[in-house]
Structures are given as structure tokens and as C-alpha cells.
Amino acid sequence: YTGPSGGSTQGVAYITGDKMRTDLTMNSNGKESNVYVIRSGDENYIWGSGFPNNTGMKMTMSIDEYTTNEDSKKYFDPTKKVEYDCSDWTPDSSVFSPPTNVKFQDFSAMMKDIIKVSVKPTSGAPSSSASNCSICNSLTGDAKNTCLSQLGCSQ
Hints:
- By secondary structure, this protein is an alpha+beta fold.
- It has helices at residues 63-68, 107-118, 141-151; strands at residues 8-16, 19-28, 31-40, 43-48, 55-60, 103-106.
- It has a 6-stranded mixed beta sheet with strand order 1-2-3-4-5-6.
- The longest helix is centred in the C-terminal third of the chain and has 12 residues, at 107-118.
- Residues 117-130 have low confidence and may be disordered.
């Protein structure tokens, strides 16, 4: 895919049943970055050059949640025209296994914890929602921006 501003994305997708893996290379303003995604059922693993020190993000999201999520449309628009070639392949289950050298932070669990912390306690004590933005500090790039956006934090 080549965007109107000249940036491009190319890669390979492996699909079988409810499993998918994409290995993408994105070029924007002369800068190249790699993003890898594995989706197995509702589990999603994302890692690549935008994450520091062999880290990545894990999140649970159903296909229905994904298709209605406005933030996901920033990264993938299924209505855009792209060039593609399809070919048969013999499914290899190892393609759908997250790498063992990447430490995945469970974003869904972090969000549940934040929601719990953000709820004002019944005792009348103040909410600690202002400190919730700090949970995104361990991320970088798009992952950090998405985290901050989801929490309504200024970037």
C-alpha cells in the first residue's frame, strides 16, 4: 500500500482458521519500521521496532470489538485499495507462536486495573485517575500514543 503522502506499507500475511500473522515493513519520511502481529482467536500480540528492548503488547479483543473500534481504523483501513498476491501454503503452527525473546505486556489487564483504580472509592477518598497515565511510560512510539489516547491523557 502506498499512501497519498508517499509513505508505504508492505508485508506478508499468513492466515489459517482463526489465526493470522502479519509481518509488515512501513516506510514514512525516509524512516523504515517493522511491525509484527499475531492474532489467535481473540488474543493479539504486537511487537516491532516501535517497542523498546524486546518488548511488545498483548491484548484481548474480539473480531467484533476490532471492527467497531475507531482507534484500530487508524492503523488498518479495510476499505483502502492495496496490491496483493495470494498463494497456498501449508500451515505451520510455529508462525502463530509469539517469540519467546519478546516480553509482552498485557494491555487488556492493564486497562482493567486502570478502570478499577479510576473508580471513585465509596469512602469519598479522591480517585487516583490522574496517576493512571504513568502506566503508559514503559511503552514508546505508537504503542505509547495508543495507551495515552485510550486513557484520555494529554500527549
